[in-house]
Amino acid sequence: MSGETGPIDQLDAVLVRALLQDARATLAALAQASGLSVSAVQARVRRLEKRGVITGYRAQVAAEAVGMPLAAFIEISPLDPAHQDLIPTQLEGLCEIEACHSVAGDAAYILFVRVAGPGRLEELIRQIRDTAQVTTRTTVVLQTYFEERPPMVLTAEE
After folding, report:
1. What is the Cα–Cα distance from 7 to 46, expressed in whole angstroms?
2. CATH number of 24's domain
3. DSSP structure string for 13-34
4. pTM, two decimal places
5. 68 and 134 housed in the same domain
6. Sheet with 134-140, side-by-side order of all strands
7. Is residue 53 within 8 Å of 12, Cβ to Cβ?
8. In the chain, which stretches have pLDDT less than 50?
9. Cα(103)–Cα(101) distance, integer angstroms
10. Does some domain include residue 118?
11. Which of 85, 94, 115, 153 would staple 120 via disulfide (CB 3.0–4.6 Å)?
């Protein structure tokens, strides 16, 4: 990353919004959406990647279709608060953990997990407790109305 920070301009915002809608958009489609030439779009997209505004491109997969229909939030608190900073590193190898957030409140972290079913959730909770020496509190997701919303893309003018 170049270290350049701050809001993006309106043309960059158009490109980012278009890529959020379709990460596979061609440079020609981005040029049409922005009114720029293909070479100008390519240069801007590369600059956005270099700045760390665009951090990657990925496929979105239906969890149910790949056998991971059960989602849950797991609040965790260290048994020994002196070891709190080690928890994310200790848990990063557990592939069912999709996100680990440090939070303010009663818990130290909140994990978002997806598993094949209740039995696997119970095993995962046991693994988390044993691996990181934490207490847990779990909330099972019954239904998801929306998730993975892209962030609002603001410009310097907004």
Report:
1. 16
2. 1.10.10.10
3. HHHHHHHHH-TT--HHHHHHHH
4. 0.83
5. yes
6. 97-102, 109-115, 70-78, 134-140
7. yes
8. 1-2
9. 6
10. yes
11. 115
